[in-house]
Amino acid sequence: MATNKPKMKIKKNDLVQVISGKDKGLQGKVISVDPERQRVLVEGVNRITKHVKAGQPGSSSGGIEVTEAPIHVSNVQIVDPETNKPTRIRIREEQVERDGRTKTVRIRVSVRSGKDL
């Protein structure tokens, strides 16, 4: 029995704004997306301090590191490129003809301005 991978409308390198939580109003670029856990890692948002022992992999000197923690996808919205405000996303399907074949292409569209993302 195969499990379906959850779909997410937010992709890597999208500009998003936090709409709830302690970092509400901050904007940042999506670093990574985890569809299984429904979480995104946003640059400069949800920063945590982590105490790291010297000699641990990924840290040469040890001490206190400040890194970003994942945030739930429901707490962020994509920023509309035209108005620079958060917006919802719709999917528009278009028929594109290539090499004599028609192919359906899904395009993300901003609800606020109607522009392609």
Automatic annotation (TrEMBL):
GO MF terms held by the record: rRNA binding; structural constituent of ribosome
Highest taxon of the lineage: Bacteria
GO BP annotations listed: translation
InterPro entries: KOW, Rib_uL2_dom2, Ribosomal_uL24, Ribosomal_uL24_C, Ribosomal_uL24_CS, Ribosomal_uL24_KOW, Translation_prot_SH3-like_sf
Record keyword Ribonucleoprotein present: yes
Annotated ranges, domain KOW: 9-36
Any single GO CC term annotated in Swiss-Prot or TrEMBL for this entry: ribonucleoprotein complex
Keywords linked to the UniProt accession: Ribonucleoprotein, Ribosomal protein, RNA-binding, rRNA-binding
Protein family: Belongs to the universal ribosomal protein uL24 family.
Family annotation (PANTHER family): MITOCHONDRIAL RIBOSOMAL PROTEIN L24
Subunit structure: Part of the 50S ribosomal subunit.
Record function comment: One of the proteins that surrounds the polypeptide exit tunnel on the outside of the subunit. One of two assembly initiator proteins, it binds directly to the 5'-end of the 23S rRNA, where it nucleates assembly of the 50S subunit.
Name the record gives this protein: Large ribosomal subunit protein uL24
Organism listed in the record: Rudaeicoccus suwonensis
Gene (UniProt): rplX
